[in-house]
Fold this sequence. Notes:
GO terms for molecular function: transferase activity. InterPro entries: CoA-transferase_III_domain, CoA-Trfase_fam_III, CoA-Trfase_III_dom3_sf, CoA-Trfase_III_dom_1_sf. This is CaiB/BaiF CoA transferase family protein. Pfam families: CoA_transf_3. The protein is 38% helix and 15% strand. By secondary structure, the protein is an alpha/beta fold. The chain folds into 2 domains: 15-218 and 339-404, 3-Layer(aba) Sandwich (Rossmann fold), CATH 3.40.50.10540; 246-250 and 256-327, formyl-coa transferase, domain 3 (2-Layer Sandwich), CATH 3.30.1540. The protein has a 6-stranded parallel β-sheet, with helices on both faces. It has a 3-stranded antiparallel β-sheet with strand order 9-10-11, covered by helices on one side. Strand 1, helix 1 (24-34) and strand 2 (38-43) form a beta-alpha-beta unit. Helix 1 (24-34) packs across helix 8 (175-197) and helix 6 (144-150) packs across helix 8. It starts with 14 loop residues before the first strand and ends with a helix. The model is unreliable at 1-6 (pLDDT under 50).
Amino acid sequence: MPSKISLKSVLSGLRVLEIGHFVAAPFCTRLLADLGADVIKIEPPAGDPVRQWGEMVEGRSLWWSMHGRNKRSVVIDLKSEKGREIVLRLAAECDVVVENFRPGQLTRMGLGPDVLRKARPDLIVAHISGYGQDGPGAHRAAFGVIGEAIGGLRYLTNHAPGMIDLPPVRVGVSIGDSIAGLYAAFGLMTALWQRDRAGGDGQARTIDVALTESMLSMMEGMLPEYGALGKIKQPGGGGISTAAPSNAYPTADGEWVLIAANSEPLFAKLMALTGHPELIGAPGYSSNPERVANVEFLDRLIGEWTREFSADDLTTRLDENDIPNSKVYTAADCASDPQYLARGMVRDVPDRHFGKVLQAGVVPHIPESPGAVRWAGPDLGEHSREVLTEVLGLDPVEIEELKRDGVL
């Protein structure tokens, strides 16, 4: 299995040490690895728990094939003194360390930022945690769903009040973890830019990302509206509280199609198409705020029209009139979408255990310096010998001794 970094990749030459588990930190480092960074993932002897998540084939996680891709897996027992010594030696050869333990856990293990920076003074350390590294809630337990709740998202992912008596629904993926990972990757890039621009003596050496804060930062006008008006933003189901018409509408074959026609020209096109040209420019419908006030009537009118067509017929009609629309995609729709396929966003990735695995492509797309899926999620400890030999210069005898001692 290849493990060399492509010279064409934009982050070629960047080395990252991941001491992470579950989703947030590994998602951050996967983004960097996709763009060419050499990510060395430290795993305990039992492995990252995500190796056992999702659908399994013969005891192997299909999700792991994508979640762990482009990384080099090294097993090290961090409870052992020799294991911690190896991590410090690896940190000395890395630009970045990414971790997502509870605040203070690395320090208690003898691997706090001060210790890591004795190995490399200009090392950048990214901490991802539930609530951040300080404050009264810093040491509370948290996962992505807790971040989504405290960040305000979980309240909004629901139908309007009074419509149903069920718990607010989850987005469907670990969105809190993933957004925190995105912010961490962005923070690392800013710190690296400052460090290298300042000749290795930049000030931004610590990235502190909280799941809760990552979600709160995505909540658009929720806080400004509450602060100025005392208004608590309410869930809106499939619609958008600030734009109309924009919702999911039913079709004759039992599917749903999203239609976004909230500008004046688009609204005019849609009303002409639905057979209601009398609403174009009419009082109550001539501006977006007016349409928002009459959204229930508009959604009912549009829904009656969409029910006359199959999803394919409806999207064809909307496309012909250049009105933004889409079916609500399932996995099967994503896998066959011609735009995704043309841009390599859906691709078959060779995997030694599965033959091949359908995976999402690399984001962002950088035509001049593209990222790549160089290999699928590795076996546990697959690269231990390679990394310790290549990066630290250990010889086979030393590696075997570490294995006998249970360090590797």
